[in-house]
């Protein structure tokens, strides 16, 4: 044991190459690879985070210790790491507690170099303190709020939510200076102005606005969250308007007088001589522009949950201008992940008709209801209600249980038929096709493995069933196979059941087809070894034709039985008689050691990118070998569902040849994965292995989204995010461009697309 022992877990910060290689050591020197690393994880800036560990003195004498910081001098307000036990003594065979504190000043990575010294023992150990700081996941439920048209003097309010996705509470406060518009000609109220958000919860905030002037007002509301580096921002817009009505009167002389709303208006018709007196009442009516909507309620009914490749449900809304003037029409609805309205601002001429496609993308089992407001001439609105319901596509195999059709082991020329019962347990009718695609050449021949019927199948909802026949008629020996039967429905392809079987055959061979004995001394004898192999599936008896060997040759054993996969060695020996009547005999002994690593593989693979590694597998024998492939994950201990490392379970390699094995790696998260890939002969227990390390690094942009529109005109685009994991995943969205509005977060259900 060393003279000083640190009770610290090992860090991968250096070994896993997570540290930027361009960074230098303390004060610009070369970085010492033997440096011990202590990592801190902090949420939010200016938060206190501490780490403690024990240092043991295993010697029989007391010694003192001291911690020294090797960083360049910085102002006190910028110092991030503090040692709370800078010096002290450790008694013999005792432990002392060391404590460091990390107060982050900025996001991302902060490093600090320290050295631990024990003068009495001449011990000097370099340390690197690494702090990783992330911004608290506290967001608003939206990035913008539009009140649209508001009548001057009338108060309106809307409620937003502050979302805390962290496991601790955070306090917040709205900046009072942000309660005024950009031109400082309008103000609003917030309730409450400050408060605290409980862990993993939503906090409601109400915004009150009373417009006082005509025209558009814009607010940029700021909310400071404790320990968050940047304030939360909410862009608020509203347009104030007033009822501007004027009535004018024109007399017989052509003089026009505007009537007042503040006093009684007197219209002098003058006196008509010898005529009657008429009392007139003036009425006026404001008419809404006449537009005809084909329906104000659209119901998609029950639709299957949308997956990539499916044909979504779509309905068309028809709008007709029945007025005698042009009518401008705008849609105020912002598309969501489950509903999309394909509409841009348009001017309808008298009698003109337009079609608005509305597409429904249900993402989970739930009922959906949305209101789509259409703005007419910028003054009034017409709302269309859209309803729909998401449901799962439940197509189950009733028989056989386990969704595996076992065809058995047939002989050449035999035929077997199996019946598969399929049920539609969905709440809607279903039409689909079955497809069987095999990669085995023997199964691709016509009539060997087929399904009946091959046409489309239609099932009624809630339990309707159909029967599918699987026919297997092998024409040659076929190794055990396992094939998937896929279901195609509305563009979606999914596995329905498995088909397993084989065709047994006899295949016996010798490892060589001729023997050379060379020169043999008269009255002496020599022997050679040959191996008979049964690479088929059925055990067979064998018997040599002894008569054809006589009189000069013999063979042993002359007959026997050889099981499938079994080798029968024919053992021989050679004897050298010496002139004095003696002979030579040698005894050989040895020890078999474990094989050396066949190769080391290191690959850097971007996240969300599938990579296939080609591993050469050599067969050192002069007969074919089948290897069982075992992939052991050395680090991390457990492979999460967000990472995939897979390949075939077996590989067959011809005699004295090399065959490539394909190992596929895929990861959604960054990390280092150390593996050992072993190729094992299960009969002889001989094996070879490779060490493979895959480093998942950050990926670049997946694609570029181009959006083009006129000034002050809205345009939207949808980004599809796939979640192949078996659990729901919440995504946070951040966009630095102020003109682009995105939801702060959204959740994609398990094995779905959002």
UniProtKB/TrEMBL annotation:
Its main location: other. Residues 289-388 form the HYDIN/VesB/CFA65-like Ig-like domain. Pfam families: HYDIN_VesB_CFA65-like_Ig (PF22544). One of its GO terms (cellular component) is axoneme. Transmembrane segments: none annotated. The keyword Cell division does not apply. Keywords: Cell projection, Cilium, Cytoplasm. It comes from the Eukaryota. It is found in: Cell projection, Cilium; Cytoplasm. GO terms for biological process: axonemal central apparatus assembly; cilium movement. The keyword Hydrolase does not apply. PANTHER family: DLEC1 DELETED IN LUNG AND ESOPHAGEAL CANCER 1, HYDROCEPHALUS-INDUCING PROTEIN HOMOLOG. This is HYDIN/VesB/CFA65-like Ig-like domain-containing protein.
């Amino acid at each position: 044991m060393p003279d000083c022992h640190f009770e610290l877990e090992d860090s991968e910060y250096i070994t896993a190459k997570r540290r930027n290689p361009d960074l230098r050591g303390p004060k610009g020197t070369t970085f010492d690879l033997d440096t011990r690393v202590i990592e801190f994880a902090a949420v939010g800036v200016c938060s206190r985070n501490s780490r403690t560990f024990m240092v043991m003195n295993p010697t029989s004498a007391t010694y003192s210790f001291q911690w020294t910081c090797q960083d360049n001098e910085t102002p006190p307000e910028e110092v991030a790491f503090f040692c709370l036990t800078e010096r002290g003594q450790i008694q013999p065979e005792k432990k002392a507690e060391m404590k460091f504190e990390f107060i982050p000043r900025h996001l991302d990575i902060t490093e600090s170099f320290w050295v631990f010294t024990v003068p009495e023992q001449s011990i000097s150990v370099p340390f690197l303190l690494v702090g990783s700081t992330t911004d608290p996941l506290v967001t608003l439920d939206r990035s913008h709020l539009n009140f649209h048209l508001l009548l001057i003097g009338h108060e309106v309010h809307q409620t937003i939510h502050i979302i805390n996705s962290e496991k601790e509470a955070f306090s917040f406060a709205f900046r009072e200076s942000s309660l005024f518009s950009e031109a400082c000609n309008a103000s609003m109220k917030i309730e409450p102005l400050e408060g605290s958000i409980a862990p993993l919860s939503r906090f409601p905030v109400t915004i009150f606005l009373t417009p006082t002037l005509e025209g558009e007002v814009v607010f940029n509301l700021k909310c400071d969250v404790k320990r968050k580096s940047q304030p939360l921002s909410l862009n608020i817009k509203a347009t104030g308007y007033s009822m501007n009505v004027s009535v004018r009167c024109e007399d017989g002389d052509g003089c026009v007088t505007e009537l007042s709303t503040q006093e009684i208006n007197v219209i002098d018709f003058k006196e008509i001589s010898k005529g009657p007196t008429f009392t007139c009442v003036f009425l006026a009516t404001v008419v809404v522009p006449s537009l005809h909507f084909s329906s104000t309620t659209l119901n998609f009914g029950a639709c299957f949950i949308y997956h990539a490749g499916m044909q979504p449900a779509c309905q068309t809304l028809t709008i007709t201008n029945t007025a005698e003037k042009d009518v401008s029409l705008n849609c105020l609805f912002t598309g969501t992940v489950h509903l999309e309205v394909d509409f841009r601002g348009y001017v309808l001429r008298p009698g003109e008709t337009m079609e608005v496609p509305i597409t429904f993308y249900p993402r989970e089992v739930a009922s959906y209801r949305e209101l789509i407001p259409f703005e007419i001439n910028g003054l009034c609105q017409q709302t269309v209600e859209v309803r729909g319901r998401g449901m799962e596509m439940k197509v189950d195999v009733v028989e056989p249980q386990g969704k595996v059709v076992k065809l058995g082991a047939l002989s050449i020329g035999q035929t077997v038929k199996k019946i598969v019962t399929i049920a539609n347990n969905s709440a809607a009718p279903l039409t689909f096709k079955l497809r069987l695609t095999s990669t085995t050449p023997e199964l691709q021949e016509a009539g060997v493995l087929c399904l009946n019927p091959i046409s489309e199948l239609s099932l009624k909802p809630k339990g309707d069933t159909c029967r599918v026949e699987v026919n297997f008629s092998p024409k040659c020996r076929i190794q055990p196979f396992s094939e998937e039967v896929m279901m195609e429905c509305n563009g979606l392809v999914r596995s329905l059941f498995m088909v397993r079987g084989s065709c047994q055959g006899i295949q016996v061979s010798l490892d060589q087809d001729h023997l050379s004995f060379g020169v043999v001394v008269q009255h002496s004898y020599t022997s050679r070894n040959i191996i008979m192999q049964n690479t088929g599936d059925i055990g067979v008896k064998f018997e040599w034709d002894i008569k054809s060997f006589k009189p000069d040759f013999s063979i042993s054993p002359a007959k026997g039985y050889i099981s499938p996969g079994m080798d029968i060695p024919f053992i021989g020996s050679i004897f050298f008689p010496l002139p004095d009547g003696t002979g030579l005999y040698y005894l050989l002994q040895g020890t078999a050691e474990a094989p050396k690593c066949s190769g080391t593989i290191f690959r850097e693979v971007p996240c969300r990118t599938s990579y296939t590694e080609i591993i050469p597998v050599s067969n050192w024998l002069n007969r074919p070998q089948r290897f069982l492939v075992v992939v052991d994950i050395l680090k991390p201990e457990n492979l999460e569902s967000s990472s995939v490392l897979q390949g075939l379970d077996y590989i067959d390699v011809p005699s004295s040849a090399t065959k490539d094995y394909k190992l596929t790696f895929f990861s959604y998260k960054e990390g280092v994965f150390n593996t050992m890939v072993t190729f094992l002969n299960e009969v002889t227990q001989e094996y070879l292995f490779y060490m493979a390390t895959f480093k998942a690094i950050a990926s670049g942009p997946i694609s570029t989204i181009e959006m083009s529109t006129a000034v002050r005109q809205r345009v939207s685009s949808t980004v599809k995010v796939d979640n192949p994991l078996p659990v729901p995943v919440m995504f946070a969205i951040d966009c630095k461009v102020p003109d682009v509005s995105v939801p702060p977060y959204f959740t994609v259900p398990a094995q779905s697309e959002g």
